[in-house]
Amino acid sequence: MAIGSRDYARPYLAGGGIPFGVKYLLIINGIVFLLQYFTARTSLDVVFQHLALVPADVVERFFLWQLVTYMFLHGGVMHILINMLTLWMFGSDLERSWGTRQFLRFYFFCGIGAGVCVVIANYLFGNPGIGTIGASGAIYGILLVSAILWPDRIIIFYIFPIKLKYFVMIFGGIAFLGAFNLSSGVSDVAHLSGMAFGYLFLKVPKTRGIDPMGWINDSYKAWKLARAKRKFQVYLKKQRGSDRDPRVH
């Protein structure tokens, strides 16, 4: 039997190419990874350090952009390869079903939600100075929703055919056990949180109208406005001090 006629191959060998949202997520992640690779051990490497999700930076320095940018950084070839392969295999079907706008809203909803949970978990139980990178929060959200929508789809896990629902259960169980070790170097909290936010997005209609990028943008604008106000107040104080007659005490 030809591979193209098999159940598990049909979704990935179908025509139409890669949908817009998934395609550009793949391209952006690839470009950022190459920049990471070629600027490693140079002065530009510090830029990527400020793009990783560091809970202390988010809370104490208000680096809210890290809740988005950490999703586009990866720690090695296998890390990005597995994430992007999963994004292509499962994200493409979701985008075709929902449309690009809804899919991207879902993607960032899961990724940013996972990032918020990582911040909270590290402040409560871990080290808020440790950085987290990777799109795994959003990817695990895609996996969970795919398993809910197409539970009996057959995929190949290494060399074994397995139903998608069991595949996701296995990975969810591994993430659950790993979440108890925050110093393992793998952010299983992000994996589980991504799944939770994926389920929330699918099952709670109100969440589908949430625009996480808009929230980040509004929060960043509010921070810039507050910062500008503080600078203006400092400027006014200096001006008042310089206008005062030096003979007056």
- The class by helix and strand makeup works out as mainly alpha
Q: Oligomerization state of this entry?
A: single chain
Strand content: under 5%
Helix content: 55-70%
Low-confidence stretches: 1-14, 245-249
Written account of the structure:
The protein has 249 residues and is mainly alpha-helical. It folds into 2 domains: 6-210, Rhomboid-like (Rhomboid-like fold), CATH 1.20.1540; 214-243. It is 66% helix and 3% strand. It is built from 11 helices and 2 strands, in the order H-H-H-H-H-H-H-H-E-E-H-H-H. It has helices at 10-13, 20-39, 45-49, 55-60, 66-69, 77-98, 100-125, 136-149, 164-178, 188-203, 212-243, and strands at 154-157, 160-163. It has a two-stranded antiparallel ribbon with strand order 1-2. A hairpin with a 2-residue loop joins strand 1 (154-157) and strand 2 (160-163). The longest helix has 32 residues, at 212-243. The radius of gyration is 22 Å and the shape is globular. It starts with 9 loop residues before the first helix and ends in a 6-residue tail after the last helix. Residues 1-14 and 245-249 have low confidence and may be disordered.
Topology:
Elements: H1 10-13, H2 20-39, H3 45-49, H4 55-60, H5 66-69, H6 77-98, H7 100-125, H8 136-149, E1 154-157, E2 160-163, H9 164-178, H10 188-203, H11 212-243
Antiparallel strand pairs: 1-2
Helix pairs in contact: 2-6, 6-7, 6-8, 7-8, 7-10, 8-9, 8-10, 9-10
Question: Summary?
Answer:
By secondary structure, the protein is mainly alpha-helical. The chain has helices spanning 10-13, 20-39, 45-49, 55-60, 66-69, 77-98, 100-125, 136-149, 164-178, 188-203, 212-243; strands spanning 154-157, 160-163.
